[in-house]
Structure formats: structure tokens, C-alpha cells
Design brief:
The chain is an alpha+beta fold. It is 27% helix and 26% strand. It has helices spanning 74-79, 81-87, 113-121, 134-145, 168-177, 195-200, 219-233, 243-258; strands at 14-22, 37-41, 44-46, 50-52, 58-65, 93-99, 103-110, 151-158, 182-187, 261-266, 274-281, 290-293, 296-298. Helix 5 (168-177) links the parallel strand 8 (151-158) and strand 9.
Amino acid sequence: MVSRSPQISVNVNVVTVPVTVTDSHGGFVSKLSRKDFRLLVDGSEQPIEYFSPEETPAQVLILLETGPAVYLLQGEHVAAATDLLAGLGSGDRVAVASYGDAPQLLLNFTTNKQQAAFVLSSANYGIGFANLNFYASLASALDWAASADGKNAIVVLTTGLDSSGPASWPQLEDKMRGSNVMVVPVGLGGTLRDEAGRKNRSRIPNRDSGPPTGDELSFADSNRALEAIAADTGGRAFFPRNARDFADAYRRIAVLLRHQYSLGFTAAVSDGRYHSIQVGLTTGRPGRYRLNFRRGFLASTN
């Protein structure tokens, strides 16, 4: 199949902040309104000009790694993806893309979840030796997913391994900082992920850390990169170990997407710099709720 890269024009002055709110037990908090949130940019309060409640339909792109690294793993993570599709709302739109050497859009956005499941199960996996251009492929997917206002997300099924060289990470980081799309990585590899990688999942890196230096194709490095991608975009990373874990992760992702709020504002700066975002609640006791949100944005230069 020929790779397609839709050209989409995005007004980068309008910044969308995906937000999820959970209570002390991990349950999602529903029925919040615009007045329940406060938004700060570089520490200064910013008017919330746009608000998308949790019941707003979502647009979800599923990006599937189909390189040799997951050739032997393709069964359980794709089979369980039906739990994700079944958990989405009837009005949610789903697209499917794959990547190895380069990204390919396999199915454009549709509300037909059965069609999406068929395309996922029919994806072709590469064998032998090949490059894994994960960072560049995700950068392209961010453009594909940003074709509508409101709730936009990418669920990427990936080992997180990237062989394209060190320059690809800062390019992806800039793309994420200028994007309004939440990314939810699902780490593939199960028990093949090493002990060092499992330890890295216990902390969220700061925004400037990126993936660690060293062997680019280690699971320890990929875990850190996937955590950083989720944190930068307001998403959450999952690392299933077996078929049961995959089913549980997909169900949790569907719930996360259903309970996502979107806050929007017009950036007052055009200096080409990164600006921090902080989101809080105007209701409830401090510390009672946990908020997950996009941590900043890259301002335009015009």
C-alpha cells in the first residue's frame, strides 16, 4: 500500500488542552463544567475560551507498529483491541494507521468500529531486517489526527523502539509541543521488556529529559520515551504483560477517552518558545483529585 500523508492546516494559535480527572480511588470524575477548571500559562491565569465536555465524541487514530520487532507478537495485542473499539461511543470516529519504515494510513476516520477491527486484524507485518522509524511515524500521525477540533487522540501500539538516529527525538518533541492531540502509548513486548525498563516506568521524566542516551534499541530507553510522550501530550502509557493485561488496558483506555475534557485558549504569544501549562480545579479539596493534562505548548512564530 502506498503511504499517504494528508496535508492538514492547523491554527497553532489555538491551543487545546486534553484533561482527565480522577479521584483518590482512581475513578474518573464526571459532569465537570468549564467553571470547575482553572488554566494557567507560565503561571498566569488564562481565560478558558473553549470547553469540550466528556460526552463530546472523540476522534481516535490507532497507530500500529508492523515491523519485524512485533512480527511474533501480533496475536494478543490486536485481538484484544476489540475491547478498545467496543468501549468507544457510537459517535466516536476511528482511523487506523501502521508503521515500520514509514507510516501508512490504512483506514480514514469512520464511526464503523467493525471495519476498524477488520483493518487492524488484516495488517501485514514485516519480517527480516528493517528500520523502525517510530518517532517520525508518530510525528506524521499527529498531523493526521489533528484534522478536527475537540477531543483528538492517538492510541499507539508500539515497542517504542526507534532506529532512525538521535535527531528524530527533538523533531518529534517539537511536533508534540505544537500539537493538540493526546497520545496514549501501549508498550508491546510483554515479558521481553527488561527489568531496567520496568523500573523506568515508576517515574515520569521531566519535559527536557527525552529518552535516555545509550542503546537506542533497548526496552529501557523505549519505556522512558513512551512515558515522556504520554506526559507531554496529556496521555497515559500502558505496559501490558499478557493477554489479560492487554484486554484490561484497552478497556481502561476506552474509559479514559470517554471521560476526557478539552480546554481551549488562544495563545497570546508568538515567540516560537515552549510555554508551560497548569490545570487545576476550582472545586473540591486540594489533593482530592488527580489531573492529567498536556504540560505545555510551542508557540507559533507569526
